[in-house]
Design goal:
alpha/beta, binds 2-phosphoglycolic acid, 8 strands, TIM Barrel, 255 residues, 11 helices
């Protein structure tokens, strides 16, 4: 973390978990545990049908509720999709885009991730843009090239001014939901590569101001070490965001 330069953001990604009633119960449980922890932003990204219940429960607290994806069109014949205009009309400010599960199971590519990112930003949303290498890429020693290229492709056409609404989540695919975590050194190094790529695209000032999270089996035990690294500005948390005490411990580590 480097709180003098940029905001630390701890975001939960609930994935396909929690009914509205479960979300209400969870937010009510976690709310007092993270109250007053002002050194980081606290966000939970929820399934579409759970957002309203989570927002209601989070009212008056420091918790913000986001979505887990967004389509790039404003409206039209896209069965099953939700637009940025619909999300903002529901008071949703944050959205995850490009999560590896979307890329892996639902055919999303850097091109569609880029379209979604531009649509969300144009609608005034804040984007948590996910990228990261798969295991074979890390083992082949091409992680730096892969994340640099993803950064460039996913942000194609995004302006320097819009970057104030972009958070990048570096998520090595081999670490997501596997219990394997990047070492703090690996996380620091690759977040550094992303920051260097941002500097080449947008200049030092934008690069230094952009929050870059680590994600991939971040939990209550390893969060402290990861967040201690100067280029790791927070976490995108899956499994541990479903357990109030674990999530609280990660928020504590960010204080
Ligand atoms: P995990 O998920 O913390 O369960 O590994 C992280 C993510 O998918 O964002």
């Amino acid at each position: 973390m480097n709180p003098t330069k940029r905001r630390t953001v701890i975001a939960g990604n609930w994935k396909m978990n929690f009914t509205p009633a479960e979300a209400t119960a969870f937010i009510n449980e976690v709310k007092p545990l993270v109250a007053g922890k002002d050194n980081c932003d606290v966000i939970f990204c929820a399934p579409y049908v759970t957002i309203a219940a989570a927002q209601e429960a989070a009212k008056g607290s420091n918790i913000k509720i986001g979505a887990e994806n967004v389509h790039f069109a404003e409206k039209g014949a896209y069965t099953g999709e939700v637009s940025a205009q619909m999300l903002t009309a529901c008071g949703v400010e944050y959205v995850i885009i490009g999560h590896s599960e979307r890329r892996q199971y639902f055919g999303e590519t850097d091109e569609t991730v880029n379209l979604r990112t531009k649509a969300a930003l144009a609608a005034g949303m804040k984007v948590i843009l996910c990228l990261g290498e798969v295991k074979e890429q890390r083992l082949s020693g091409i992680t730096d090239e892969v994340v640099a290229m993803q950064t460039k492709l996913d942000l194609l056409g995004v302006t320097a001014d819009q970057m104030k609404n972009v958070i990048i989540a570096y998520e090595p695919v081999w670490a997501i939901g596997t219990g394997l975590t990047a070492t703090p050194e690996q996380a620091e190094e690759t977040c550094g590569v992303i920051r260097k790529t941002l500097a080449a695209l947008y200049g030092e000032e934008v690069a230094e101001a952009t929050t870059i999270q680590y994600g991939g089996s971040m939990n209550e035990k390893n969060a402290g070490e990861l967040l201690a690294k100067p280029n790791v500005d927070g976490g995108l948390i899956g499994g541990a965001s479903l357990v109030a005490e674990k999530f609280k411990a990660i928020v504590d580590a960010a204080q």
